[in-house]
Amino acid sequence: MHWMEVTVESSVLTSFYNSEDESNLLLPKLPTLPKNYSNTSKIFSEENSDEIIKLLGDVRLNILVLGGSSAFIELYAYGMFKIARVTGIVGTCLALCLSSDLKSLSVVTEVSTSGAPEVSYFQLETNLLYSFLPEVTRMARKFTHISALLQYINLSLTCMCEAWEEILMQMDSRLTKFVQEKNTTTSVQDEFMDLLLWGKASAELQTLLMNQLTVKGLKKLGQSIESSYSSIQKLVISHLQSGSESLLYHLSELKGMASWKQKYEPLGLDASGIEDAITAVGSFILKANELLQVIDSSMKNFKAFFRWLYVAMLRMTEDHVLPELNKMTQKDITFVAEFLTEHFNEAPDLYNRKGKYFNVEKVGQYLKDEDDDLVSPPNTEGNQWYDFLQNSSHLKESPLLFPYYPRKSLHFVKRRMENVIDQCLQKPADVIGKSMNQAICIPLYTDARSEDSTRRLFKFPFLWNNKTSNLHYLLFTILEDSLYKMCILRRHTDISQSVSNGLIAIKFGSFTYATTEKVRRSTYSCLDAQFYDDETVTVVLKDTVGREGRDRLLVQLPLSLVYNSEDSAEYQFTGSYSTRLDEQRSAIPTRTMHFEKHWRLLESMKAQYVAGNGFRKVSCVLSSNLRHVRVFEMDIDDEWELDESSDEEEEASNKPVKIKEEVLSESEAENQQAGTAALAPEMVIKVEKLDPELDS
User: Fold this and answer.
1) Which residue numbers delimit the Anaphase-promoting complex subunit 4 C-terminal half WD40 domain (predicted)?
2) Cβ distance 110 to 119 under 8 Å?
3) β-pairing, 92-98 with 471-476?
């Protein structure tokens, strides 16, 4: 995994960075999702809305690069949307680095053959990204907006599904049970019609209403339906529709960009594919409007039906009925009669499909994430516009009209929309990926070290991009005698250019104590190394003859000493890059380094892996058993000096000097261990100060 930020500057890019995003002026601000739903909605909640805006407001292009063992590498603009997919990568990707000038991508892979795995370095040209950087940046911004809006719509729909409650299905289930248990041949619809017209209910219907549904249950059901439908209605109007309209706007702008073929066609932006995506969003908006109509109609129907049924049940119990409830006009009676006629028909085929005879509640079917047709699709009979479209072959196929799916749920139309948008935005990733061609291949070495995949993530080989000098650096070690050397390979990001001292090996000679002027000489093997910043490499060394607990060193290696211009001619690689480097060790120039400062003894710790960050001024050292971490603050201005002593004194006291240390308490460590007993052992973290200018 590698995340880089583009540093290339141009007048076109600068004007784009400084220009106001028109969508902020033309589109209303997306309302934040309500907090009382699932945790996922908190991504777009009030507290996090600024973070989303900040993310979408970052106009300078940054790219997340991912590689693994799947034979491809993917590039994600702003870490969110895929803009390139490089296929044909042989082996497992151990390290990768995209240059900040977008001219090349460096990759280190491991190919397992019948023998030991072979590790190689590749450099791929990325000239299309470099040549069309302003266009790629604009396109990536649109992709990111679209990606965020799809997520917003998805979460809005999730909130709607949560607002719909299972209690709303109670009427359907009770009526189905009534059909199964009743002994009379009278239909349920006739039973309720008799109650409406004559005010009398059969004994079986009275039992259903008074013992199973109950007056209190009916009141609760009515309140639940009103509350649930109102919440869903608000979410559709304020969130789903505003998100869909914003999505339509950004896709329309993307279509306009695609029409400028000179600029965007080489990147794979296809106007016809975007047109399909716009059409799919239009269909989704139509389906959302249909749901609003169903909710509005259902709320009116249920309100009238429950009011009538509530009064009828109060009369059965001979309770007092309030005068305002008792008033019922002929229009109200007709309304309830039509509701009973439409919803209370027994449907045996529905029972075979859904296990119920009725579908009184019609909103929930729109929120089901399934491919089945709607149980009760909207009635289009007598709809003049619908009939007109069906009878017109020209309009039926017109690109100006959004297709309508009357028998499908909102979830189904949403999934179709997402698939069409994904297909439309997938083409640029394929085109840009295919443009990345392998320009350089350097076989490095065979690796017989058997380590699990977790540990391989921590260590060599390590890639770094120097943004100032536009160079790729690769740190690695070769087995056997070269294990005591760390090799540094460097290549120019522009493949057409060469660089001096392209390959050099570093041997670690002696380390001098400042206070005692004692010189520590031994044979050191390089365990791990990473770039601290553009000018410095942080290295963990092992003294092969040192006493356990005092055999690990943390070293800051300045590259200015490695690439000394005065004697650079003496350290030129004389071998061939086409032959594996471990087969020509003698041709690799070796520079022996002696340190009087920039190092520290790592006591009482089997340090194995290191990570450095010059921007944060820290280095982290991880033990070989992956249980202990030490964090060193590398650039401290405090005036202090380490209490240096001879090896004999240190051996006698056997107490490491700690400048600043934070260790997990015993109870915290036990809690941590208990919580992750099956996953990982207890980890102890220590924080210490280390000034690179002071000796150890």
Assistant:
1) 463-633
2) yes
3) unpaired
Quick: pLDDT tens for 235-288: 999 999 999 999 999 999 999 999 999 999 999 998 999 999 999 999 999 999
Give the whole-angstrom CA distance, residue 429 versus residue 555: 42
pLDDT score at 658? 34
* Nearest by Cα to 299 from 335, 330, 325: 335
Give the alpha-carbon dihedral of 303, 304, 309, 315, to 10 degrees.
Answer: 110
Spatial neighbors of 528 by CB under 8 A, at least 6 apart, are 458, 459, 460, 539, 540, 608, 609, 610
Cα distance between residue 651 and residue 131, in whole Å: 61
DSSP state of 113: -
pLDDT category at 676 given cuts 50, 70, 90 is: very low
Q: What is the per-residue pLDDT for 248?
A: 94
Beta-sheet pairing, 81-87 with 92-98: unpaired
Is residue 25 within 8 Å of 41, Cβ to Cβ? no
Order of all β-strands in the sheet with 536-543 = 524-533, 536-543, 552-558, 599-602
Beta carbons of 72 and 89 less than 8 angstroms apart: yes
- What pLDDT is recorded for position 631? 92
Q: Are 358 and 169 in contact (CB under 8 A)?
A: no
Dist. CA 665–CA 217, nearest whole Å: 55
**Cis omega before residue 323 (within 30°)?**
no
DSSP letter (8 states) at residue 34 = P
Using H for helix, E for strand and C for coil, what is the string for 516-541? Answer: CCCEEECCEEEEEEEEEECCEEEEEE
The DSSP letter of residue 366 is G
167-179 in b/e form (b: 16+ CB < 10 A) is: ebebbbebbbebe
Distant-in-sequence, close-in-space partners of 236: CB < 8 Å, separation ≥ 6? 160, 288, 291, 292, 295
Mapped to the 3 state alphabet, what secondary structure does 255-308 carry? HHHHHCHHHHHHHCCCHHHHHHHHHHHHHHHHHHHHHHHHHHHHHHHHHHHHHH
Cα-Cα-Cα-Cα dihedral sign, residues 447, 449, 454, 458: negative
pTM: 0.77
> CA-to-CA distance for 281 and 277, rounded, in angstroms?
6
Per the CB < 8 A criterion, the answer to whether 250 and 149 are in contact is yes
> 166, 179, 182, 208: which is closest to 355 by C-alpha?
179
Measured distance CA(172)–CA(365) in Å, rounded: 13
Burial of 181 (0-12, 13-18, 19+ CB in 10 A): exposed
DSSP 39-77: GGGGGGSTTTHHHHHHHHT--S-EEEEEE-SSSEEEEEE
Q: What is the dihedral of CA 226, 230, 233, 235, to 10 degrees?
A: -140
SS3 content of the chain, % helix, strand, coil (to 5): 45, 20, 35
Alpha-carbon distance 67 to 2, whole Å? Answer: 9
Which residue has tokens 């002929």? 330
Place of tokens 């910043």: 533
Note the pLDDT tens digit of each residue in 301-355: 888 888 888 888 887 777 676 666 667 777 778 878 887 777 776 666 655 555 5
Residue with tokens 């009427």: 171
For helices 11-18 and 133-163, angle between their N-to-C axes, nearest 10 degrees: 30
How many CB atoms sit inside 10 A of residue 296's CB?
12
